[in-house]
Amino acid sequence: MNQDSQILFTSKTIGTVTIKNRFVRSATFENAANKDGSIGEEYIKIYEKLSKGEIGLIITGMIHTSDDGRSYHRQAGLHSDATIPGFSAMNETVHKNGCRIFAQLCHGGRQSMVLGLRPPAPSACRPDLTYRVYPRAMSNEEILFAIKTLAVGAKRAQKAGFDGIQIHAAHGYLISEFLSPYFNRRTDEWGGNPEKRFNLLKRVYESMREAVGSAYPITVKINIEDHTPKPGVTLEETAGYIQKLVHLGIDAIEISCGTVSFSLFNQCRGNVPVRALAKVMIKPIQPVTRFVLKREFPEEKYVFYENYNLWACNDIKPLMGNTPLILVGGLRNYESMEKIVREQKADFVSLCRPFIRQPMIVKNWRNGDIKKITCNNCNNCFGYLPLDESIQCNLNRDF
Length: 399
Ligand SMILES: Cc1cc2nc3c(=O)[nH]c(=O)nc-3n(C[C@H](O)[C@H](O)[C@H](O)COP(=O)(O)O)c2cc1C
Fold this sequence. Notes:
Elements: E1 12-14, E2 17-19, E3 23-25, H1 41-52, E4 57-59, H2 84-96, E5 100-105, E6 120-121, E7 136-137, H3 140-159, E8 164-169, H4 174-179, H5 194-197, H6 199-212, E9 218-223, H7 235-248, E10 252-256, H8 260-267, H9 274-277, H10 286-296, H11 313-316, E11 325-328, H12 334-342, E12 348-351, H13 353-357, H14 361-366
Parallel strand pairs: 3-4, 3-12, 4-5, 5-8, 6-7, 8-9, 9-10, 10-11, 11-12
Antiparallel strand pairs: 1-2
The structure holds flavin mononucleotide (FMN).
């Protein structure tokens, strides 16, 4: 490693917390919690391994904070005080290994596999074929309840020893749905124009801030583009939201794209693992499911290319003043990550799929062993979700 390439191993603060290097493990759903949302050895092992790999900041997979905000069967929860001890044990291990860890808190909204046919959403709309649900519009009371439970969840995360919070406002879950003109057709105080669509995120941030105090880092993950069938958030709108968040005092922002329902493979560019995804269906209808998936998600539309969200940094970074920007999406090459940070396109480089396969790679890099990332974006890691097994790398496994 030459002198210049050391920049990825310089420390930087997020709010009051110092991160020892510029590598972030982007939130990665584990599918490894117990069915009651508590966590045990299987979940903790994932984080022990990641922290041994010397990643500066680890962001957990999405954690729900209320039963009505839960998306997946094996999703971890901070919906009850009873789950705090498990997270405390995990955080102690991560801290012993010198890493920081933030909890990603999420209300799933319409993207839920566990709430039955009518999950809550900003507006009622056509059936969602990915989750096989028929979203219904939330009442004002339900919205206020969601805000409250997210704030209580943040307080629990603080009690459990997390170093900070990431609000999940990306990928088509509830807050992202409210930000989007595609999902949010309301005309009350929660929708109708960008200011009102921002209201939920603003209120969640303010309530969390009140719960955890001014010194505790709160960050946001937000989409630069939704890639929905009709326009969702655009870079212009997101830029406005980011300016507002910076003004409110947010401690860092991670930019991403896509929704799970409509554009998972914009979010995670690469192969479309139709065989793995069809496993959500019973055996007799898997062949037809594969056919439909191939038609709906033609692979040529989602071809992987490196740093696919980098294009937005030139617009976003100047809006952020001293607030750190975290970039995720196809970061795969050490030299180009180094360039991104050196040229101040972003302050942190965030990776998801590569750390499923190579959790130790940052440690290798720190030791001067510039190993290549061998994740080939086959996206078979998603195949474990319907199997109810914890997410793993199984390069090109034929499910
Ligand atoms: C298996 C899997 C699970 C994911 N879970 C989450 C999650 O819980 N929260 C989130 O914000 N993003 C999640 N993502 C998206 C990643 O954080 C990241 O934005 C995306 O994979 C692009 O980064 P990459 O090219 O480094 O993989 C997930 C991605 C994968 C592949």
